[in-house]
Write a structure and sequence with these properties.
Blueprint lengths: L1 H10 L7 H21 L1 H7 L3 H6 L4 H23 L3 H15 L3 H25 L8 H20 L1
Helix pairs in contact: 2-5, 6-7, 6-8, 7-8
Amino acid sequence: MGVASALTWLSGTTYARGWSELINLLIWPILILVPLLFMRIRILDTLSLGDDTAKGLGVNVMRTRFQLALIATVLAAFSVAAVGSIGFIGLIAPHLSRLLVGSSNQRLLPVAMLVGSALLVVSDALSRTLLAPNEIPSGILVAIIGAPYFLWLMRKRS
């Protein structure tokens, strides 16, 4: 039973997750860290101009990068603790959002959050219904969707 649970968690799933996991693992970090991230979002746009330009505009580049990386790491850690590693969502959502709204982080971050959550909801619904009463882990279904998308994206970029 332990090996099956570990493999299910490693592939990423929302199976047997309820409101308690949502409240304990996601609500508090989201309520604290996402507003911090939105307060720093303009600085992230400034950092995208390059280190020299950001320094010229008065941004402490090293400290700001560390703070933003820490916020992103903690948010990712809590998400993985809640549902396992559904890694392709973190890879697909920002790229797809960038295609939709451009590279301005003020628009990109909320759209990426919405695209990622919508992708997880759709993949979870499909994973529960495709082989009902059995369930496919959501992470596997997202990987099946994400791999062709990344191949298309790589082909388009090159």
